[in-house]
Amino acid sequence: MRVSELAQTGGVTAETVRHYTREGLLQPHRDPRNGYQLYDIESLGRLRFIDCLRSLGVSLPEIKQILSWADQGTVEFNEPVPLATQRRRLHLRTQELQVIARWLDNMNQDKMTESFCLKELIESLGTGKLVFEANDSRSDH
């Protein structure tokens, strides 16, 4: 895949792919015929992994360290893993995304109830009290 193809498939901009390449997070191969940077399926996996970590607030230097460990096949860690400090946030983000996905599913299936509107969804994300989970049984009626 070329830069634009990787970017589109990975859901980021071409500039983001170029930036991650300059930072050494992605390692393309050069096409000897034209000099284009080519990315493989492993690059797509790395890009998605980087994007997930960035959404959790993990810094690029920390991501670089994590990818270095992966490249070396590290199994045991002699220093704290940066991602470990994000565990609680990761679980919360997962719950939030599941609530939004359920809300969208119900909206698409015309199962919306008067008791659960978009405003409530947004407020529940702000308070951390994920309203849709509590009202989920009502959406089946």
From TrEMBL:
Does the keyword Transcription regulation feature in the UniProt annotation? yes
Which PROSITE patterns does the record cross-reference, listed alphabetically? HTH_MERR_2
Taking the record's annotation, the residue ranges forming a coiled coil are none
- List each copy of the HTH merR-type domain by range: 1-69
Q: Does the keyword Transcription regulation apply?
A: yes
Listed GO MF terms: DNA binding; DNA-binding transcription factor activity
Question: What are the UniProt keywords, alphabetically?
Answer: DNA-binding, Repressor, Transcription, Transcription regulation
List the SMART domains: HTH_MERR
Supply the SUPFAM superfamilies for this chain: Putative DNA-binding domain
Q: Which PANTHER family match?
A: MERR-FAMILY TRANSCRIPTIONAL REGULATOR, REDOX-CYCLING DRUG-SENSING TRANSCRIPTIONAL ACTIVATOR SOXR
How is this protein named in the record? HTH merR-type domain-containing protein
Native source species:
Vreelandella aquamarina
